[in-house]
Amino acid sequence: MSKRISLVGLAVLAFALLWSGAQKAVSQNDTRKQFLGILYPNPNIVISNAGGTPVRYGGIIYVSVFQAGGDASKKPVATAELSPSQRDLLNLPLGEYEVHFGMRTGSTVKTFILRNIILRPEQPSQAIVEMNDDAKTTIIGGDMSAQEMADSIRQLQKSR
After folding, report:
1. What is the C-alpha separation between 131 and 100, in angstroms, rounded?
2. Burial environment of residue 159 by CB neighbours within 10 A (0 to 12, 13 to 18, 19 or more)
3. Which of 80, 96, 135, 159 has the most CB atoms within 10 Å of its CB?
């Protein structure tokens, strides 16, 4: 009888150790995520208000989401192409991001950058598509570090 009890006890102990190890392994790989909603208003967006008359755009917007503070040459963590009234819901790890909206007009691409979008565990975030037709690149929020500014200037000089 004692062999049977010790065999059952040993089996229970082995199961408990295996269960504990499996739970620890799962928790180590657990990266908490949150949703980032990208919203393209219906039926179009105002891209300029020059002269008091709003200029509207209802074409495709190219969306790229980057990890904040990263190198400008890094690949985006998510991309999308949106038309008016479309929404995209991205599930990303918690952290700080910047969202780039691109609009192609002819052979040029205009970019609108939203910085300091912070994904927190308590609630999802959203970014509404915005554009500025009066400038080639518009940056809203955040500050560039001196190193990022110097890298950008070098990149611009190379492209000329």
Report:
1. 10
2. exposed
3. 80
- Give this prediction's pTM: 0.69
d(CA 57, CA 55): 7
**Strands (DSSP E) found in the chain:** 33-39, 45-48, 55-57, 61-67, 78-82, 87-93, 95-105, 108-119, 125-128, 137-140
Is a pLDDT exceeding 70 seen at residue 29?
Answer: no
The alpha-carbon radius of gyration of the chain (Å, integer) is 25
Residue ranges of the domains in the chain?
A: 1-30, 33-159
Cα atoms in the 13 Å half-sphere on the side-chain side of 134: 7
The token pair at 42 is 């219906």
Backbone angles phi, psi at 126, to 5 degrees: -140, 150
Which residue is listed with tokens 């192409």? 81
pLDDT digits (tens, 9 = 90+) for 54-66: 889 999 999 999 9
CB 58, CB 43: distance < 8 Å: yes
Tell me how long the chain is: 160
The CATH T-level fold of domain 33-159 is Immunoglobulin-like (2.60.40)
